[in-house]
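Researcher: Next sequence.
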Amino acid sequence: MNEFYLQKFAKHLRNLRKEKGLVQDDFDCKKISRSMYSHIELATSDVTLSKIKAIADILGVHPKDLFDFD
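Model: Next structure:
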């Protein structure tokens, strides 16, 4: 993935998480680990579709909303 978009995606995730009043520990479940979520939010790891779905479910948003960043 392009580093520019990975960084923008990560920043958008961090902002969404904070808007929802969640902490990274809230992402520690059988679909995604807190560690994996942390790597995604820090833009040090690429993300799979299954992880995108898990993140969207936890945030209570549609998966396409995770890509609504400028």
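Model: Residues 20 and 59 are 7 Å apart (CA to CA). The first helix runs from residue 3 to 19.
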